[in-house]
Design a protein that fits this description.
This protein has four helices and seven strands, in the order H-E-E-E-E-E-E-E-H-H-H.
Length: 178
């Protein structure tokens, strides 16, 4: 899988920009879906047999429905009754894929765009303080957002989707000069 920048660098920048919570745990991180497990209280064995008493097992977190993709996760407290053992958990904020489920390489600016959108929605509820860079004009900020959105979503038309998936047909134009 191609990467635009190393995951360790992205995660380091996420900690520098958005900080940590709950005992120095990063607020945001990028992980690979197939590598994530979580401890859950379960009533079944790995083979599917029902147990007499529930037990704690380390189970795949995303592998059942997100295969071989990078995920931007957000740290959240767990409230209420749950089968999770921990009182905090990373929950998915963004899966790096296009609208057709095709792999997209993770990159810090894309993470920042998703996080800023998430935080601006939370700010609307007056539950989080947003910090702005005073050295960037609103026009520069909007232009940067547009570039990142183009990187994340691209040109999403039926024609370009078919061409990128290899199901489209290209008909060469008239190349004769008269």
């Amino acid at each position: 899988m191609e990467l635009r920048e190393p995951i360790a660098d992205i995660n380091k920048k996420l900690v520098e920009r958005y900080g940590t919570e709950f005992g120095n745990t990063p607020r945001f991180r990028v992980v690979f879906s197939d590598d994530q497990f979580e401890k859950r209280l379960t009533d079944f064995t790995d083979e599917g047999f029902e147990l007499i008493y529930p037990e704690v097992r380390e189970l795949p977190k995303y592998r059942q429905y997100i295969k071989a993709k990078y995920i931007l996760e957000r740290l959240v407290p767990i409230v209420g009754e749950t089968d999770l053992v921990s009182k905090i958990s990373y929950e998915p904020a963004w899966v790096f894929q296009d609208k057709n489920g095709k792999y997209l390489p993770p990159f810090f600016d894309g993470c920042m765009h998703v996080i800023e959108s998430l935080l601006s929605n939370i700010q609307g509820a007056n539950t989080f303080t947003r910090y702005k860079d005073k050295n960037v004009s609103p026009e520069e900020h909007l232009a940067h957002i547009k570039r990142v959105e183009d990187d994340l979503f691209g040109n999403e038309t039926d024609v370009t989707d078919h061409l990128s998936q290899g199901t489209g047909i290209i008909v060469p134009g008239n190349t004769t000069i008269q």
